[in-house]
Amino acid sequence: LGGAIVNNELHLKVYYIIMITSSLLQQFFVFTHFNCFCFPRVRTFPKDSALLGRETVRALMYYALKVWSDIAPLNFHEVAGSDADIQIDFTKADHNDGYPFDGPGGTVAHAFFPGERFTAGDTHFDDDEAWTFRSPDSHGMDLFAVAVHEFGHAIGLVHTSAMESIMRPYYQGPVGDPLKYDLPYEDKIRVWQLYGVRDFVSHTNQPGNPSQTPEPPVLLDLPENRSTLLVAQDALDRCTSHFDAVAQIRGEAFFFKGKHFWRLTREKHLVSLRPAQIHRFWRGLPPNLDSVDAVYERPGDHKIVFFKGQKYWVFKDNNVEEGYPRPISDFGLPVDGVDAAFVWLHNDKTYFFKDNNYWRYDDHFRRMDLGFPKDTMLWKGLPLQLDDAMRWSDGSSYFFKGKEYWRVPGSDMEVEAGYPRLIAKDWLHCTEMQSDSPDSETKSTETRVNEHHHPDHAENGFEVCSCTSDTASPLGTHLSTSPTWLLTPFWTLLLTLCSELL
User: Fold this and answer.
1) Which of 147, 218, 315, 443 is deepest in the core (most CB within 10 A)?
2) Against a cut of 0.90, is the pTM above it?
3) pLDDT for residue 39 is more than 90
4) 71 contacts 192 by C-beta, under 8 angstroms
5) What is the predicted pLDDT for the residue at 435?
6) Comparing C-alpha atoms, which of 334, 342, 331, 324 is closest to residue 367?
7) Residue 9 above 80 pLDDT?
8) Residue 50's pLDDT is what?
9) Feature table: binding site for Zn(2+)
10) Number of domains present in the structure of the chain
11) Cβ neighbours, 10 Å, residue 412
12) Cα 335 from Cα 22, distance rounded (Å)
């Protein structure tokens, strides 16, 4: 709101209503004390970790939740049954929540915001990651640090760009000993705004004597021999790379390089600074596939088509269709492969590029249109031998080559003035950093550069590490009498009025 332009009397009145309401709500929640009881359960455990046993994992979850309950009137009590408010799972790939994990790297965990839905508060960790604690960052992902971040989402916090916050959207490495960790002040303020302050906690100082359960879990040090946990540091750097293929899939952007890809949400926010492995996400591609030539989402049935050399694969969601790969001669394309493929929003047809030629294919009738190939010079301003192309939700088409991209708006066939521009700067959040090195850069729970102070929006209201959610209500869905639920209608009103202002 502070950056909104108030340009008429009605908007000015709405602006004052919002500001007054916001101020009253903040005072109510900061200074109203109440207790919220919640019951977590670790339902499944890491399957491949020889170092993190069940009791260690349970202890880490206990201390990660305690970080929040030490400063706010939140009370977590572990339960063993199915009535838990926060179900904690270690799982892989597609685990039936609409947000499959992508193997080592990429998204490492995600959590549901509080709300009315059955899965509210549930927190999932990718079991393909090398989980550890009290270990150097190169040994794996610090489970305690990731858990603190994800439980922040589970109680209703969204991401922030504050440099010291645990709620930054990229994993930043270990945060220290779980027995001694203290939340940054930025995070304390935000949770106090939702739940109030515990009686013994100062608004300006850290807790002097945080409450303890009678017998808190014991955290033992890990064995010295940790060589099996070493994670290979990937040499790929999104900020200096060119890309083999680029595609819009399910409204998100995918940048493919070698055996890996980076993924952006609908709002062009990176899901993770670390790339994910292609064959671990799309199961059915050969594990030894060294790169892909082009990728596009087929109009009509929304299946995903991958091209490499003389072959192509068709996927339904993350699973390859039976009978693939097949030869690209099925499309009537040259046997030496394609450079780029995208669906033009203007006519919903698929365009293939190779060298200085392009083809127009009708996916609905599964046939190449007559009169093709044609010379790419008809697309004024585009370079030859593209890396790939895609359409985007703004209605424009985007073409990529090397470290640059070109934009063609709407139904035009001419590059917009001001292009080419840098891919790294405009798409891959490289304005403030130029390296993915774990020593100089953050990585994901994420923990994001140029991060906005609001959640992204997804169709199902699920908070994942890519920060997509419809709502961020406070914890307490199962406690209908909790005064925090007064926030929900005001929050909805606030979002509605904000959208009118914009």
Assistant:
1) 147
2) no
3) no
4) yes
5) 29
6) 331
7) no
8) 62
9) 95, 97, 110, 124, 149, 153, 159, 167
10) 3
11) 14
12) 62
> How long a stretch of residues is the chain?
502
The string of pLDDT tens digits covering residues 99-134 is 888 888 778 899 988 876 778 889 999 998 888 887
Residue 202 lies in a domain: yes
By residue range, what is the domain housing residue 22?
Answer: 1-34+483-502
Backbone angles phi, psi at 351, to 5 degrees: -110, 130
Residue whose structure tokens are 């047809």: 349
* Co-location of 286 and 421 in the same domain: yes
Binding residues for Ca(2+): 85, 102-103, 122, 126-127, 129, 244, 293, 341, 387
pLDDT on residue 498: 37
- One of 150, 297, 446, 463 is an active-site residue; which one? 150
Instruction: Residue 293: name the closest of 274, 310, 280, 268 by CA.
Output: 310
Helix %, strand %, coil % for the chain, to 5? 20, 20, 60
Question: What confidence tens digit (pLDDT) does each residue in 167-209 have?
Answer: 988 788 888 889 889 999 989 999 998 888 887 665 554 444 4
Q: Compare 226 and 10 and report the one with higher pLDDT.
A: 10
Which amino acid is located at 326 in the chain? R
Tell the burial category of 354 from Cβ atoms under 10 Å away from its Cβ (0-12, 13-18, 19+): buried
CATH of the domain at 164: 3.40.390.10
Q: Are residues 179 and 293 in the same domain?
A: no
Q: Are 97 and 45 part of one and the same domain?
A: yes
- Span 228-241, average pLDDT: 59
Give the annotated binding-site residues.
85, 95, 97, 102-103, 110, 122, 124, 126-127, 129, 149, 153, 159, 167, 244, 293, 341, 387
Residues 207 and 337 in one domain: no
Chain-centre distance of CA 10, in angstroms?
37
Spatial contact of 318 and 282, defined as CB atoms under 8 Å apart? yes
Residue 435 belongs to some domain of the structure: no
CB 142 within 8 A of CB 132: yes
Q: Is 186 a catalytic residue?
A: no
* CA–CA dist 319, 117 (Å, integer): 28
Q: How confident is the model at residue 35 (pLDDT cuts 50, 70, 90)?
A: low
